[in-house]
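Hi! If you just cloned this repository, the fastest way to understand the data is to look at a raw example. We've pasted two of them here, unedited. The first protein comes first, obviously.
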Amino acid sequence: MRVKRMRRVALGTVVAAGAGLLAGTATASAEPVQAGQPGLDRFYHQRVGWKACGDKDLDAAGARCADVTVPLDYARPDGRTITVAISRLKATDTRNRRGVMLSNPGGPGGAGLGMMLDVRKAMTPEVSSRYDLIGMDPRGIGRSSPVDCGWPVGIMLRSAGIDRAGFDRTVRLQADLARRCAVTEGPDIRQITTRNTARDMDVVRGALGERKISYFGWSYGTYLGAVYTQMFPRQSDRVVLDSAVDPRRYGVGLFQAMGKPNEAALDDWANWAAARDAEYHLGRTGAEVRALVEDLIRGAAKSPIRIGDYRVDEHLLPMLAFNPLADPRHNAALATSVRRLADAADGKPVQPNPELEADLRFVTRPTPETQNSGQAAVLCGDVAAPRDPEWYWRNIQRNRAALPVFGGFAYGPSACASWAPPVEPPTEVRNAVPALIVQATGDTRTAYEEGVALHKAMTASRLVTLQDVRVHAVFGNYPNGCVENTVNTYFRDGVLPRADTTCREN
């Protein structure tokens, strides 16, 4: 999931997913293919040709870009190759240069070439000047041999609806999305995985002539970073994992974990909107505002809401709330969106506000630049999902009362239910690689418990808790002096805090 707008792919995981239901599945903890083994030396020792990025912001910042060649299938290094696009903002303090810092913005499916332009704004000059800051479009994404399944929708994330008819429509849609990927991309799509992306990162390390890499990741990027530390512990330097995924739940379990915090976030927002009823007219109490949202969803199931050129049904409407709930700074935009949807449901001729328009366009009208079938390739290629539709239906029904708005999303099927089996088992993360884990207690994409679980799995890590803040992705996204000081100190000195740390709102 990217972090700032859903159209940029905000899963946490838009999003991400994991499964206790996969207990007993074999796990991979050792790296079977790495530098020095036959066939890989040419990738690790390739010459990197830097060039202009062809991106306004990156070029203006003085970044340079390159394409790094990697095997499509690391088990067959003499077979087909693909390229992975990277960007570099060079260290300016060459005397105290620390090395390279790779990054990932989340998703999965987030293009990361320009990510460090945002992140470095939260860095002190001491930190940003000592690292080559490396952005990267992971394999299958952006400029890195992108997956494009030719979907009729922009993203697979949907609510399964409020009744059996809506659920059955969702099952058919998700099966069709998986079928399109199998037909359009063929067997190569099964190599678009987190483990292969971690291997790509290590090839980048070697191609850049570095012994180790430092790393910063948001959301799904924390899972990628954790997998890298497990596969390449001796090549891992200073690692910061912000808004973390529990690797044991990566798969459908992570989606399930989103249900409760999103319902809580909806209540928090509803109370905010109720305090401003004179402006938005959504209800005088939080309960009234929530009731309005639930009524809109039920009404959209009977007759989709027509707003501008769009039709919003019960599958889309919860997702239009899911995105802004990840950050309290989007409260006003969400209130405006709900007000306009309510007016449209009443038959008034209204147009969507800019934020709602952007999200609707992303979800319903994919372009080669915005389509997000690469997210499915990674999620479904990493961990097998249950295939029986009835398993999902039973879970939705069991949780419908507690999760009236987001239960159909959290427990519903995705394209992964119809995907080919993964080419290798998922990674069991359990190591003593030092890392700093940052987690907000109100995170709606990767629940706070996810970060706590990763902290336990990475036994030499420290946890930085941002207390009582509803936000997904902190450092470089949500200003907080305590978090910024802790992260910058670690990147500067390489020394973790002596104990876990709690930060509060500025």
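Ok, and the second one:
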Amino acid sequence: MPRGDKGKYTNKQKRKAEHIEQSYEAKGVPKGEAEARAWATVNKQSGGGERSGGSGQQKSPADKARSRSSSARQAVASKHGELRPEQRLEDMTKAELLGLARKREIAGRSSMRKQALIEALR
């Protein structure tokens, strides 16, 4: 399929792109630029044209559940200011280090520089 071919897009995506293009043209944007912006918007919103078949990397329901569970655990740990096993203090931002120091109630943390925070957290 040649580059730029819109054959894999659904009718709804084509209508949406046409509507967006007309909107840009009404604002005075040249036709070519309006068309490019319209298709870029459709691609960003829907991930591009309908593709036949799968991506070849589909996960099993069990793998999906494990991923969700792992992601949820990381989110909770992050929210509570805990370190993930693979995260090093040196790789954290000063704001993240301050949050961690606050959770551990380290005195004088607000006046510390990043290196001092790292040493205090260790």
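That's it. A detail worth noticing about the second one: Residues 61-79 form the longest helix (19 residues).
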